[in-house]
Amino acid sequence: MCIYTFYLYTVITVSQNSIAEIAKLLQEFFRDLDVVPSDVFAGIVLLRRHQKIRMRHVVSQSENDVYQYLSGVPIVPKTEFLQLSHPDVMDEYNKVIHYMRFALAAYGWPVFMMTNTGCGLCKITPQLRCCCSCCGLRHPKGVELIDDNCCQCNFAALLHLSGLKQADLVYVTYHVDIGETPFYVALDHKHKKVIICIRGTLSLQDVLTDLKADAEILPLDPVKEDWVGHKVSVGAEILPLDPVIDDWVGHKVSVSC
Questions:
Q1: How many CB atoms lie within 10 A of CB 195?
Q2: What are the two backbone dihedrals, phi and then psi, of residue 253, each rounded to the nearest 5 degrees?
Q3: CB within 8 A of 191, min separation 6: which ones?
Q4: For strand 73-75 and strand 215-217, is the pairing parallel, antiparallel, or unpaired?
Q5: Residues 18-39: tens digit of each pLDDT
Q6: In what order do the strands lie in the sheet with 193-198?
Q7: Domain extents in the chain
Q8: Bridge partners of 217?
Q9: CA pseudo-torsion sign 73, 74, 77, 78
Q10: Distance (Å, rounded) from C-alpha 187 to C-alpha 111?
């Protein structure tokens, strides 16, 4: 009971400290502005609206050589595109597609259902685990799986979206908190790589993690004070990778090889 109380106190303290940091950052950012969160949201919407109108206006003018905008970038006669007819470029393009599957898989069942609107539930149901704690199908063998839901829907979606086999997965965590993002570690036998795939923003905790956007100097040797990054990422709060790599990845790679 004492251990649980201490753990709960620690979690609450960390969350409060994180929220206090975010509040301080926003206070400094909007120091001279009398605004509320709804004003910021309305401003972002209006800014995007203004950008779209401006891009349409530029394209409609005959004196401009802008054909259209692609992801906000103007397409002009001198714009260079990927030459997929070149073997080296095509190889890199295929690698992007290959690893993009792993990136999507990190988002779990929400992305799986979004990309399989017709029969997604039918595809994923056979891989779901029994929610009964006494059932042998409760935990996948050989995988360190943390904080998935009762039927392990995220894990099942990960297998479908990534195309990985269960034996290729080393460590999977869906634990999410401020400064702690779900991720998984897997083995890519095709390219002989160890994959560390971090989920992007999907929950309120992820949004608060993004808001801890204060800059921090990158831990380089030698130190370069003008090289900075997102405080959470630089501080290594997101990924507890050291024990994962030491205890799991090395063992799995040696067994697989």
A1: 19
A2: -65, -40
A3: 95, 98
A4: unpaired
A5: 777 777 777 777 777 788 878 8
A6: 144-146, 169-173, 183-188, 193-198
A7: 83-211+243-257
A8: 228
A9: negative
A10: 22
